[in-house]
Fold this protein.
Amino acid sequence: MNLFKSDTESELEESDEFEEDSEISEEDQMNFIRVKTPQEVVLEEFKESEKNFEGKLKEFQRRTNKDIIDIWETRNLKNQILVDINNEEYLPGVFDLINLEEDSILRKILSTFSYLTMEIKSLTRNIGTKFYDPLICWGDNGNLENNDENEGDCIIEISRMMNLFKNIYDLVKMLSPLTKNMLYQINAMLKKKTTLYDKVFKKMVFHHFFDMLGEALSVLVTLDVIVSENKNFVAYWNMYNRMFLKCRSNPEPYGATKKNIKYLERFCRRLTTKILTKQLFLEYNKDLATTIASELGKDGISKNKEFYEKYMEYLTVKVKNIEEELHIKENSHKPLLALLTNYALMRALFTKKEDKKLYKKIWSLQKICPLIVVYNNLTLNVGNFLTVVCPLKKKPTLDPKSVGNFLNDTLVRFDNNFLAFVNTQFMRVVTWIIEVNGRLFSVLEDGDRLDVVVENRAHIIVKGINMAYEIKRTLKQLLFLHQAFGKNLEQNILNGILQCIEMLKSMEETIQRKSTRLSNYTFVMQKVFVNKIIRKLQDSQTLLRRAKQDPATACMLAAIKMALRILRGGFGTARETIFLHCMDFLAHSSKSVFKKEDLKEIDSMVIMARKIRDWKYLMGKSTRCTFLYWVRSLVPTIFKHIFKKFHRFKRIRYVCQALHDPIKMLRNVQHLESPNVAIDNYKKYITKSFNEVIVQNLCSMIEKDLRIQIHGILVPKLKQQNPLDEAVYDYMNFLSIDDIILFENRINLKSRVSQYLSEKFYEMTALTPLDWKTYEHIRVLAKQTYGLDILETHLPSKTTDQNVDILQLVRNIHKFCCTYHYNLHTQAFIERTGETKQIKTIGIGQMLNSLRTHGFGFLNSAVNTIYKYMIKLMSMTSEFLYDEYISSPLLIEAKEYKRSQSTKYSFQKAQQMCKTMKALGQVEGMPYLDKFREVITMIGNALGYVRLIRTASIKDSSTMISFIPKNLEEPKFAHYCEEMGIDGDLKKAAEMFDESINILFKQESEAKDYLRELVKGLDGVFVGDENKHMRQFYILVPALTINFVESLRRAKEKVIKKRQVGAYISDDGFAVGLAYILRVLHQNKKFGSLNWFESIEQNLQDEKDNIQKARQQLTEEVNVEREINLKKIKVSGEEYTLLYYSFNAAQIFFKEMEEE
């Protein structure tokens, strides 16, 4: 597919498999991803903003509290939330700024050039966050430890990215005619046959125009680098293409039609074979040259000698300028990439012309800049680019000869010179910070010129931006070179890296503190440089008016007039673009209006004005440490290094600030369900590393130090620590630091250590109570030495009765119902045994004490929470019975039982039903029937918990009311006070006493039966026609009881074993749950018609009789086996009897309501 051909022409070249549907236009076919209207986009953005408003408020509160503000030390700034600067003019376009009535030629050229360059800027604006970030992070979920995904997840991730791929496809399609139009414009101007060529265009330069052309082509190079660096592209697309084989033949299950599948497959084929191929830029240049040659024919660009000379002139000048900028450490990576793309385009247009000198010059630029930082973690080497994209037919002698050896030598040179570089930059940064704090807003003295002072302030800001870019660029090159060659970082190099991060974040912090005042001076600083340019132009205008008038002179005068008018209105992006095109006219080599020094001075002032205009963006970009995300495996090593260098531990806060920078990039992730998935995984990894390396090590070392000091005193003849032989650390360097802000968490190391030591000493005292004095000594020593507030470790000799918190149980009601077992008669919950040797019990006394702690007003809220939980469990019951594999056997069994007209449900049929249910499979490692039995038990446990709460509240009321005389039916103390004329506090006390007595009597006589309320809440809800599947629940009860008894017997057998995990002796929650469900479903009578427990008794008696009959006829050994079977039958009979009693007792709870 040729990108410069129409889509219809491209598709005619495709195979018959993708034959075009003539009834549907190409535009409709490619719009299988529906383009949203502006109204829909705005409405969705508004809905999303409204949806997340509460979350944003909480985040705002979290980010604007005192501790977080203290990072930037902005306590003196009142009511500051955000300071933003925008110098752009909101105009319809560049045509509102270009208004030349005298010179139509200049107006046409400026309008065309400015429109095309502004269109490129519009397309590439925010391209990093829109396209590059999602593509770079594709396949990465932020989890460094486990990033493996199955094929289904990969296909889903590609599906989420299809809209992005469609936008990238559209972007490349829009760049195609745009770049071709730019070349056509210059080609039309640079022809000898044209009238104005010799007079005007011959000596003009097109530097800014070619710069923007190179910037547009740089987008394609960046896409190629992303595809080649991200290994997930090939693997994921292979999986996605395999999906078409499945859905092409049967698209209906995928919610698609054959036409949609065909359009999607065609689009994916175009995308993978043309856009995401690692050779997009190379193929793009070839297609562009071929298209221009076919469209222009004899007038093609390849035959335009003047165009070639002008292009070579631009490239030669650009190479020289970039070399100078790289020598003075300017941030020229983006211009260098534009130079490479322009050179490759020139070679594609003029294939027969090879300038070896220019090739060598560009090749040698890698000695100054070994790696071009294209974007984020993407790097490019000049030599590799030239070798792959535009090699010479005859390879000349190049310096360096081998790119691989050169990069290896560069890495060694970087390692050797890095510490010297860091030390130099450290002195420069310290000097710059002093200048910002001292000279940036110093008071003007007598004799100071305002413009000179403002200019000096601007130079301070730009100096900081340049230094930050230099530090960051060198740091990224060093890290990525080490990563590429797999070479480990030495300790001294790692220390230099940390110092660079510290310098970058300290510069950001310094400028952030001055941002409010600096925002007020931005326009003034920018205006100083603009006025200098205006004075230069006015001098040149005077000279031109005195010169001989010709078309070239007239054009230059018009350009100066336009430039002056543009500069007097500001220096936004649109005005800067028009001004730079005017300067291309004014750099006329045949006129001596501007000297080279003047042009360089104007260029430097333009750069200064631009950097001052965008200082906030540039300073943020130059100090942002997003690259740490791609080397996050070094984070634990970095923390270890910081921990060892305890005397400089305060740099940890700068590292934490730097680790927060990748969050902005991760917010642009599109392949995951939500960007928060990657953000949360990244935060968890960093937080885990911080806790393990910093917090845990610090706690352990302080504990060790305290123990050594105490044991040196308490233990006689213990060898003392020699500070000359062993290093002694001053841990106050760690504990005296302010709170560390790690993402949204505020970490106080002193409180963390205090909490750790408190828990540790308490646990040790609980294990060995006799050592409590030793730990008390350690506690006092920790307070005196480190200022740590550790809780007292001495435990009382007696225990309190309250060991449970009702609030905590309600919050974790699902865990409580799973891990505790209910005893109906003692009203106690016993924890299921685990790995530990201790189990917890909860009775009426513990619940009463907990209720007194929280107040009895909590009861209604607790019951409401349990009611919601009961609804969830009943829904799970309904889902289980709705399954056809379960409901069908139950329906058949119910019909057979009715047809048999039997008075008892057979025990053998119940056993067969058990086997049928177990054969259905497993869920969460257990059979379906066992899982359903656990759900019923959880329902019973929840009801038992409600009963325990009610009993505790009644006990409290009866206990307190026992102190009130029984003949005091209605208290009238307030009435007596009125009769006696008593007023004031005594009367209020009497009223409160009367009210308290009334409440106590009311609580005792009208205590709420919460079980009744729970039955009323769900009574009849699951009985209607929509719940027909639950009408056969009663027929499943026999199988459930058999399963319950078997499970209970296994649990009791574990009690006498050595490993008692999962043992318990009572589980009456099952009986209560059965009684509740039968009552709610109105199936008590149906279950009673089964006479199930009588059938159990008869079956057990039959088994006993059979064993007794066979005992006399068998040998002694077989008789022993029969005795064992008799014991088993006896145990089973006891369990069934206990279940029967518990079930009947549970039915009493709901029997009264049934009678009513």
User: Anything to note?
Assistant: The longest strand covers residues 372-375.
